[in-house]
Design brief:
Layout lengths: L1 H29 L4 H26 L7 H27 L16 H8 L5 E7 L5 H14 L3 E6 L5 H4 L11 E7 L2 E6 L7 H12 L3 E6 L16 H9 L2 E6 L11 E7 L7 H12 L4 E4 L14 H5 L5 H4 L4 E3 L3 E4 L3 E2 L2 E7 L1 E2 L3 H4 L5 E2 L6 E3 L8 E7 L6 E4 L14 E2 L3 E9 L1 H5 L7 E7 L15 H12 L22 H30 L1
Parallel strand pairs: 1-2, 5-6, 5-7, 7-8, 8-20
Antiparallel strand pairs: 1-3, 3-4, 9-15, 10-17, 11-12, 12-14, 13-16, 16-19, 17-18, 19-20
Length: 534
């Protein structure tokens, strides 16, 4: 008799689950409920009600049901389990820690993005114009930006064909294959076209910076055979210019004429490896600019080398000026040598030292790895510099005994004690002098002249800027000189991630299955515990 009752209960449970979930699930997946599906769901629900009624009767006959402490314990167990579930999910939502097992961490925002979002002071809105069903990665990306911003960022995905009236406010008509992100903050707006490649953090971050931060201008001196700013060849600086643009820094060319001074909007003056001497007038203009609190980056071109059978001419010896007529006034001197490192160098060239031997200047070199430089010169301190000048090396060769400043320019690499500068050799210097009025008032201030000297200009050219951490070093230098208080961003190449796209019906099928099994497990667990305690 008991066996038959158990079979009937099992049949009721099976019919109940089957009818309820098939009726509701099928209707949800097809987005259409008919009388058959509704009837199945009702029959299933009725079977479950009957099953639970029989279970209640069975439990009421047991002696253990008379113990109210066990009933209370069972209720409290359910309550605290639900509380723990809610608490864990809330903590996971508020915390940025993610167990992302995808190969390229596509569901985890970078540390730079987190710093950018948390530094926002104004609200902004991200509107995605996307024809058709948006990919899951796009929805996840926007949700993460919203979550981390704590209400400062709002997002939306608009289908310009379906919501044509609403999409019209963004201006031009979006074509079928065109994808666009519109970032708005106050009266500022930035558009990002991601029709050809997926929308990345870098693209969004650049747009956010352009609408929330004031653009800075840096001027590259020209007219002395410097490295061309917008040239796409190996010796050009177009890639570095692009990196500056992504950090909302505008690069401009500057030709100093008889009637022209340094523009007033110049945040940093960059002298990118002149191969010809500056005129006395140009030096005076730069000198006045620096004395007035202007900031500058000096990139010094390497000396000319030769072989023993081809001695250098007088012109070749003096070619590629060191600019010491300006730099000596600020406490440093660029020497006529070539820094070599036999132990740490790039591409088998001992004259291209690779290093991460940086002095403790955290604003520039914090967490930055190796950089390398092409035939740099050694830089030394001037003994008779002004006491108010603070000049310290911040880039040195990696090795000590295996590096030196080679004065022999005939490619015969050999250390000569007393002649060559022993390692580790400084190839980059940071210089700061407070404004004269602050010195007189004995005020400690960050205002004043900031100068950085690097005895190589090639490391930022198109041929080398993407190797090691050269681009990041260049951007951090500009960041410090311009006194920008935010992180620099180096836009990385997009790594294609294979996508598995589902139709809307398939998505609903997956969602239904994801709900069915957990609910079923919870229900069965409830029944098991009820039988155990009652």
């Amino acid at each position: 008799m008991a066996i038959r009752k158990n079979k009937r209960r099992a049949l009721l449970l099976l019919l109940g689950w089957g009818g309820l979930f098939f009726g509701l699930g099928k209707g949800y997946i097809d987005q259409e409920y008919n009388y058959v599906l509704i009837g199945l769901a009702c029959v299933g629900a009725l079977c479950l009600v009957v099953y639970l009624k029989n279970l209640q009767q069975q439990c009421s006959q047991a002696k253990r049901i008379r113990n109210p402490k066990k009933v209370l314990f069972f209720v409290l167990l359910i309550f605290f389990n639900m509380l723990a579930y809610i608490g864990i999910n809330y903590a996971a939502y508020k915390n940025n820690i993610r167990f992302d097992v995808t190969q390229f961490k596509q569901h985890t925002l970078s540390e730079n993005t987190l710093k950018l979002i948390t530094s926002l002071k104004e609200n902004l809105k991200i509107s995605i114009l996307y024809v058709g069903f948006p990919p899951k990665y796009l929805e996840d990306l926007l949700k993460e930006y919203e979550r981390l911003s704590e209400g400062k960022i709002s997002t939306e995905i608009i289908d310009p064909i379906i919501q044509i009236g609403y999409a019209a406010q963004f201006g031009q008509i979006i074509q079928g294959k065109e994808r666009k992100a519109v970032v708005q903050s106050g009266n500022e707006r930035a558009d990002v076209d991601f029709s050809q490649t997926p929308l990345t953090e870098d693209l969004l971050n650049n747009a956010i910076k352009s609408v929330t931060r004031k653009a800075r201008a840096v001027y590259f001196l020209t007219g002395h055979n410097e490295y061309p700013l917008f040239n796409n060849e190996d010796n050009g600086l177009s890639k570095f210019t692009k990196y500056l643009m992504t950090n909302n820094v505008i690069a401009k060319e500057l030709v100093l004429t008889n009637n022209e001074n340094i523009p007033t909007d110049c945040s940093v003056l960059i002298i990118p490896g002149p191969k010809e001497n500056l005129s006395e007038l140009e030096e005076n203009i730069i000198r006045d600019y620096l004395k007035g609190g202007g900031d500058a980056l000096f990139l010094i071109e390497n000396v000319v080398v030769t072989t023993p059978d081809k001695p250098l001419t007088e012109d070749e010896i003096d070619k590629n000026p060191s600019l010491n007529s300006l730099l000596n006034e600020w406490g440093v001197n660029v020497n006529q040598d070539i820094v070599v490192d036999l132990a740490s160098h790039a591409s088998g060239d001992v004259g291209s030292p690779a290093t991460r031997n940086y002095m403790a200047h955290q604003d520039i070199i914090k967490n930055i790895d190796y950089t390398f430089y092409i035939r740099p010169r050694s830089i030394s301190l001037e003994k008779d510099r002004r006491e108010s000048i603070k000049a310290v090396p911040f880039i040195l060769t990696q090795s000590k005994e295996q590096s030196w400043g080679e004065t022999n320019r005939t490619l015969e690499v050999k250390f000569d004690a007393g002649v060559d500068r022993p390692g580790p050799v400084p190839i980059g210097f940071v210089i700061f002098e407070p404004l004269a009025e602050d010195l007189l008032k004995d005020i400690k201030s960050n205002k004043g002249t900031r100068i950085i000297v690097v005895s190589d200009a090639d490391f930022l050219t198109n041929a080398y800027v993407d190797y090691y951490n050269n681009a990041e070093m260049g951007l951090r230098i500009i960041n410090w000189l311009a006194q920008l208080d935010y992180e620099v961003f180096v836009e990385k190449d997009f790594t294609k991630v294979e996508e598995f796209n589902l139709t809307s019906q398939q998505k609903r099928m997956v969602i239904a299955l994801l709900y069915i099994f957990p609910v079923m497990i919870v229900f069965l667990g409830f029944i098991a515990k009820a039988k155990q305690y009652f």
